[in-house]
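haha ok so turns out i had the wrong file open the whole time. this is the CORRECT one, sorry everyone. sequence first:
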Amino acid sequence: AGLCQARHLHMTDYTEACLDNMEQNIAVNKDWLARQGVNVDGNECSRKLTSGYLEWTECAEGGNDENSRRAISTSEPFPFSEAEVLLAADVVYDASQIPSLVRSVKVLLISGGVGATTNAAERRKAIFATTYRNEKTFALFTNELRREGISCNYAEKEAIASLPNIFPCYF
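then structure:
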């Protein structure tokens, strides 16, 4: 939130423990975030950070109705129709959740509320930063994306290998 230049960053998770941890991280970094120009607590800043609940199955079943997507978020409702980027971290691991994950991505990418333009929808992208754990799970993920009409590109292995790691990772 402090490093990207997004006007509004909305972070989500679905377990109470993860949501509590996310709120704790925001609180711990509150002063630093404010110095970076991020509105955490109603302070006067140019960028905004909110957080809330999001569960893939509920989102996927919410269809394309703006009100059902807004009800999913438990903090301040976030208008997904205004989002340009969905950044998902380490979410491709449970094969049973892949269909709901991909349907949720589609719901979020094609949401079209008031003010959403065709150009805005065309600029939307989803970026997945995730550990490559299981070849079959990733094949399922890629096939589900394509089945839903979502194009999928992987980062070059060389580019990923050149990134610094705190500990050994397999991306």
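The mean pLDDT is 77.
again sry for the mixup
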